[in-house]
Amino acid sequence: MAGEKIVEALEIGTADLELMAEYEIAKASNPNTAPPARNLLFMALGNISAERHVLNTFQKIKAAALHDALLVLPFSTLPMLFTFLNIFATKEMNIPLTCRILFFMLKTHHKQIVASKTMRTMLDGIRESLRKSLKRQKDEMGFNLAALKIVGERVKDLGTKDYVDEETWEEGDGSSKKKRGFVQVS
Questions:
Q1: pLDDT-based confidence at 175, cuts 50/70/90?
Q2: Is pLDDT of 172 > 80?
Q3: Does residue 107 sit within a domain?
Q4: Is the predicted pLDDT of residue 12 greater than 60, yes or no?
Q5: Helix, strand, coil content of the chain in percent (nearest 5)
Q6: DSSP letter string over 30-84?
Q7: Domain membership flag for residue 106
Q8: Which of the chain's ends, N or C, has fewer CB atoms near its CB within 10 Å?
Q9: Assigned domain for 91 exists
């Protein structure tokens, strides 16, 4: 069921990508070109892009069922899937899910992918996009961690008081409570 949803989303999304690419080419030559009639599904979902629809389809599948759904995909759908994975990596759309899908598909279809020249060139593009986005996220995390350390030190400094009032200290120390004695029963 989930595998069929993925295949359907990939087919609809690929058709929309091709349609929008043709529109961009026509728009470059004639700026007054009317936008094409897109699939009604995209219009019903709020005029979302094809890559957003495919990503939403992947996100709706539970993590446990994702591997089973990806196993159902035939090898012929891999070029479409890798096209969208490249778009996800370039636009930094849910990088953990993108990596999980990519690594699973590489493990599953490793021999066929290595034998295909077109798949290797697609993987080079995905690798470059993923490296850029992961490096940016790593730099951002390092920057955020450094900022958190500085904020933590400031909070620690502001929370520590150097001045102690002796009168207040002595009043709190002089408790007049009776101490409890313990009796040993043998």
A1: low
A2: no
A3: yes
A4: yes
A5: 75, 0, 25
A6: -TTPPPP---HHHHHTTS--HHHHHHHHHHHS-HHHHHHHHHHS-GGGHHHHHHH
A7: yes
A8: C
A9: yes
Q: Are 137 and 95 in contact (CB under 8 A)?
A: yes
Q: Which of 19, 25, 74 is nearest to 43 (CA)?
A: 19
Q: Which domain does 74 fall in, by range?
A: 2-141
What is this structure's pTM?
A: 0.71
CA dist list (Å): 150 to 30, 143, 145, 159, 162: 54, 11, 9, 14, 21
Helix axes 63-72 and 95-108, enclosed angle (nearest 10): 40
Are the beta carbons of 70 and 3 closer than 8 angstroms? Answer: yes
Assigned domain for 25 exists: yes
- Which pairs from 32-41 meet CB under 8 Å and 24+ separation? 39/12, 39/15, 41/12
Whole-angstrom Cα distance, residue 133 to residue 6?
24
Q: How many domains does the chain have?
A: 1
Amino acid sitting at position 10: L
Q: How far apart are CA 35 and CA 134, in angstroms?
A: 35
Stretch 111-117: mean pLDDT: 86
Q: How far apart are CA 103 and CA 89, in angstroms?
A: 13
Amino acid type, 148: L
Question: Is the pLDDT at 148 greater than 80, yes or no?
Answer: yes
What type of residue is 46?
G
